[in-house]
Amino acid sequence: MDASPCVILDRPQLAENIGAVARVMANFGLADLRLVAPRDGWPQERAWTSASGANWPLDAARLYPSIAAAIADLQLVHATTARPREARTPVITPRQSAAALRAAAAEGRSTGLLFGGERAGLETADIASCQAIVTVPIDPRFRSLNLAQAVAVTAYEWWTAANATPAPAFADHAHPATADELAGLFEHLERELDAAGFFFPPEKTPAMVRNLRALFARAGLSAQETATLRGAIAALSKGRGRVLARLARERAQKEQSP
């Protein structure tokens, strides 16, 4: 159970749905439940009633103010949604997701499955922070799954993939970056690109940011690689600062010369 993915519910609306998710988690060996800003607060007694005795995920459930906070310590996160939208993130099936999660667990990586709220699902910006989109292949005539059903399908595939776990592939020194480390890289890069005037025209900035984040998220960077990239960004920033300072000095000297 220590190697199992956590289940992250973004802005769940009904306590009964949270309880139903806990019941499914217990069916398939999942125990780490993370709740992002539940609509009606937490805890909610009706969730325990709906869990039908599967109390341990609810008893240990952790509350977070945002998806970024909920996934900060994770190194592989799959977003489950029926609408990939415009994000350039790989789209896989629950079975493919299960194989990837099992492989990551075998390497000692921390993993999670992210689920959107009952009404609106996940935002594109949230998906861009994940390494893959999981879409359940169902009859296109009726593509609607409720929250517990979506968790059940993905959890079942994870449970049954136990006998197909490949050997670890990462070397000891290639510890994968956590979501928090990747977020630090994203923010650092975006700050320097903004200072350099890269985001133009302004109305295209959100889409450019999403594409950059999706690019690095699916690259599978290690913690060391993330740190190296941040060092490279800092060096380029300092170099640009020195050039600008030199140009300013030269301009001042010209203005002072007779």
Strand count = 7
Q: With helices defined by DSSP (H or I, 4 residues minimum), what is the helix count?
A: 10
User: Average pLDDT across residues?
Assistant: 87
Q: Catalogue the unreliable spans.
A: none
Output the structural class: alpha/beta
Succession of helices and strands: EHEHHEHEEHEHEHHHH
CATH architecture of the largest domain: 3-Layer(aba) Sandwich
Shape category: elongated
C-alpha termini separation: 78 Å
Q: How many discrete domains?
A: 2
| CATH third-level topology of the largest domain | Alpha/beta knot
Q: Please write the CATH class name of the largest domain.
A: Alpha Beta
Helicity, in percent? Answer: 40-55%
